[in-house]
Amino acid sequence: MSYCSTIENISSKERKVLHKNYHDLHYGFPIHDDNELFGRLILEINQAGLSWETILKKEMNFRVAYSNFEIEKIAAYTEKDRERLLTDVGVIRNKLKINAAIENAKTILNLQKEYGSFEKWLEFHHPKPKEEWVKLFKKTFKFTGGEIVGEFLMSIGYLPGAHEKECKIYKKILLAQPMWMQQDNQ
Questions:
Q1: Whole-number Å distance between alpha carbons of 40 and 151
Q2: What DSSP designation does 69 have?
Q3: Quick check: 77 and 84 in contact, CB under 8 A?
Q4: What secondary structure letter does DSSP report for 28?
Q5: CA distance 58 to 42
Q6: Distance, CA of 89 to CA of 2 (rounded, Å)
């Protein structure tokens, strides 16, 4: 069952609003800000082994705990910051995921130097099938497996499938011209 269909079947009003906000306003739409792209990657990494609803409920906590997803600030995190995150009940307190966020921020700083931005690095490698993206991400970043990479790229418009064609948001996604619509970007 797709995310579009799943949301329609949620009975709890509070849960439905939480999911519909993400589905209707964020999921599948292109992101052009490097910090927000990185923030989405952090959220996808932290979702591994958990429900997306858990991450949605904690999104604002993540934003506060991880310096509003500012890449430069996170790349400069010290051992004290790692310890702070490991004791912050508002985020996922997993050492591997916390370390991945910090190390991935450092990696993105290097990508920004080489390509101009994280977004331009993504554009440079587009288009690729999911399997090739997964290989690239595993080679480049920490804690990025097939599901994480696939969901990250679908959620930012690099891979199709975020919405059913019958979903009313699908037309809005098309108007935003996601990268998956562009086959010859290089």
A1: 10
A2: G
A3: no
A4: T
A5: 12
A6: 30
